[in-house]
Amino acid sequence: VVRTASRPLAAGDxxxxxxxxxxxxxxxLALCVLLCLNYYSIVLGAxxxxxxxxxxxxxxxxxxxxxxxxxxxxxxxxxxxxxxKGSCEWSVCLPLYFAGVMWTLVYDTIYAHxxxxxxxxxxxxxxxxxFKEDTKQWLSGFSLAMLLTVPAIGAHLAxxxxxxxxxxxxxxWKKFASNRTVGVLLFIGIVLxxx
Length: 195
Known about the structure:
The chain is mostly helical. The protein contains 14 helices and no strands. The longest helix has 23 residues, at 90-112.
């Protein structure tokens, strides 16, 4: 798409082979980190591989690739706990995981609205295309679900959705990038909760 045409692989700055070498290096380093963890965490980390492998294909299969991204990206909520404790306390980990998945649906749907015209042309799917003009209602529902576990960030998400212009890619980018604030607030909440 136009917005990503200058990325190294799309621009031809690196070859497909070089990108596979880079990917292999990253996966090797990740495996080294994983193997330093306890057995439970190694199994839990390996269990995420099916999500990691299938996520890139989801835009061709479903209008919900953002959900698969959320399930994949937030696996760290489970793995981080098990790496420290040796197992998951599901009553703690699952709400955090669920909140992360809901948050990913919010910010990545906003992100997807930047590319919706190109996505239609090239035939890939996204929640942006699925929700269309109902995006704000869907994002409100996901945000409400997320807020059941992390109420401190509600004001930011409400403002983000209320002021979102889904037809202006630059505004979608601005709102997407503003989710750093959500992450900072969530981090502060975790730190203060532990204090």
